[in-house]
Amino acid sequence: MSRKRFTPEQIITKLREAEVALSQGMTVGQISRQVEVSKQTNCVIG
To answer: Which pLDDT band, with edges at 50, 70 and 90, does 25 fall under?
Structure first.
């Protein structure tokens, strides 16, 4: 299975989306599904 690479701009956008969603009370699991990142990556969010 190949790995999907994100551009720096895409990463910044996803982190901003995650920050807004987290402030609205969403769980890290919900946010990781919303911004389409793996469970391994969500440790950066939470």
So the answer is: very high
